[in-house]
Amino acid sequence: MSAPPSKSLQASALSFVLLSIGHTIGGKEWTAEKSFKAIANSRPWACGTVGWYQGSAFFVVTSLLHYQWSLNPTALNDPINKTMASIINILLWASSAWYAKHGVKENALVVGLSAALQAYAVFKA
To answer: What superkingdom heads the lineage (predicted)?
Structure first.
């Protein structure tokens, strides 16, 4: 007998879709800044640009993973799945703290909220 779908994991999956959209929009904003355009065609410009959009793709893949877990929450009993969830949660909290430390308050708040939702969904009793 399988467990019923997890609404909290579905909510977490949705939060990652929203993070991806916001992350992509944010990337378009900061890459349009004069100071960023001034380093165009440099290594930092290339790495910063592609890395940012890789981050957006990471959020989509993470959303799919959480949606898959939502359909079968018992999959999180597997140590590999639990480890992946833990790494994702650590990454979210670290990113939120980094944004906060550097004054990017909106990103810190949104990523922190997603981290809290993800932690609740994955680690609830």
So the answer is: Eukaryota
